[in-house]
Automatic annotation (TrEMBL):
Domain DDE Tnp4: 5-138
Keyword Metal-binding set for record: yes
Metal-binding keyword on record: yes
Keyword line: Metal-binding
Cofactor(s) listed: a divalent metal cation
Superkingdom of the source species: Bacteria
GO MF terms held by the record: metal ion binding
InterPro entries: HARBI1_dom
Name of this protein: DDE Tnp4 domain-containing protein
Length: 154
């Protein structure tokens, strides 16, 4: 449901997390057939691009976000053998390895939401209702971890 596509209703949620993986913002749920990058462009990439430019904070993303814009760091594309592209260099492989390690912390935000709140695991509700459930789960997660609505620790 939340982490990707679904066969019934399902949906795509874009989350913004802190560097330690704590979720601070989730987008409204988009239809499950929408690509992740399109959903991110609608809801999160404008703020993340501003953070990248003004605060020099990069955004770490997976390969689905290739060409997403300024400040979005994605892994290098693995060459396809049928077109005789050169293999990844040692520097590119090292970049991908480091990026994977850092992105793991960001994925923690989804784990905090989906792992803690069973209502988010296998839901077939409409995207509008899922949006309300995800927003409530985010608020409960903030409360549970001692965060105020202005994102400062209590």
């Amino acid at each position: 449901m939340v982490l990707g596509k679904a066969r019934c209703h399902g949906g795509v949620v874009t989350a913004v997390t802190m560097p330690d993986g704590f979720p601070i913002q989730v987008s409204p749920v988009e239809s499950g057939r929408m690509h992740d990058l399109v959903a991110a462009r609608r809801h999160a990439l404008k703020d993340l691009a501003r953070a990248a430019i003004e605060l020099d904070l990069p955004t770490l993303a997976d390969q689905g976000y290739l060409n997403a814009g300024h400040g979005v760091i994605t892994p290098n594309r693995t060459p396809r053998t049928r077109w005789a592209e050169p293999e990844l260099t040692v520097d590119q492989k090292t970049h991908d390895l480091l990026l994977r390690g850092l992105r793991g912390r960001g994925e923690r935000g989804f784990v905090l939401l989906v792992g803690r709140w069973k209502a988010l695991r296998r839901t077939t509700a409409s995207p509008r209702k899922i949006t309300q459930i995800v927003a409530a789960a985010l608020t409960c997660t903030h409360y549970e971890h001692g965060w105020n609505t202005d994102h400062t620790p209590r």
